[in-house]
Every structure is written in C-alpha cells, then in structure tokens.
Amino acid sequence: MNLLRERFFSESDMSEDILEAAYAVDSVQDITTLKFSENFAEKIGKYHFSTLQLAFDFYMKYSKSKSFSARKSKTFKNSTGEIYKQKY
After folding, report:
1. Residue 83 phi/psi, 5° resolution?
2. Which residues lie below 8 Å from residue 71, measured CB to CB, with a gap of 6+?
3. Residue 83: beta bridge partners?
4. What is the pTM of this model?
5. Where are the beta strands (DSSP E) in 6-73?
6. Which one of 40, 56, 57, 76 is most buried, by most CB atoms within 10 A?
7. Could you count the other beta carbons within 10 Å of the beta carbon of residue 54?
8. What is the sign of the dihedral through the CA atoms of 85, 54, 37 and 46?
9. Confidence at residue 78, expressed as pLDDT on a 0 to 100 scale
C-alpha cells in the first residue's frame, strides 16, 4: 500500500493503475498503518483486499476507531462451496 499518495499527490494526478495500487491492502501491516480520519469514510469503498480475512480485519479496526462493533453478516458461495463474497 502506498501511503505516500495521501501526502504528496491528489487523486487527479494519478493514473488509474497507480490509484488502484494505492488502495490495495495485501497484509495486516497495511491495515495497521491506516489513519482513520474524519473524511476516511469517503475512501472506504476504494480499498481492495487480497483476502476476505483482511477485509474483515480492516473493518474490525475501522469499527473500533468509530466506537461500534463489526460482525460478519452474510456469505456468498460459488457452486463448489467456496466463499467468494461476504457482507459485514
């Protein structure tokens, strides 16, 4: 995850590929470096997670920072029974 993006560049200055990479979350370490500011809610939908567990860990940290709790709500499985989508 490229946190320098928020300090030095505006989104209008970045190509679509660079912007997508800036919102990629590939590890727990990426989650621990995030700062949940007042305007962070506008950016939440832009993040991409490499696993469902990382997405849930992200949501758990965000919910704790905003004083509410998170839970897993609904899962979607493919024809082989693998979870491919989850609502929180």
Report:
1. -75, 125
2. 88
3. 77
4. 0.58
5. 24-25, 48-49
6. 57
7. 18
8. negative
9. 92
Domain boundaries, the chain: 4-87
Residues 4 and 62: their CA atoms lie apart, in Å, by 20
Angle ∠(50,56,57) on CA atoms, nearest 5:
90
Given a contact cutoff of 8 angstroms between Cβ atoms, the answer to whether 31 and 5 are in contact is no
Encoded tokens for 84: 């491919």
Could you report the per-residue pLDDT of 12-70, keeping only the tens digit for each?
A: 555 555 556 667 888 888 887 777 776 677 777 888 888 888 988 988 888 888 898 88
Residue ranges with strand state E in the chain: 24-25, 48-49, 74-77, 83-87
Determine the Cα–Cα distance for residues 27 and 53; give it in Å rounded to an integer.
Answer: 10
**What is d(CA 84, CA 75) in angstroms, rounded to the nearest whole number?**
8
List Cα–Cα distances, 29 to 15, 24, 67, 88, in angstroms.
Answer: 25, 12, 22, 21
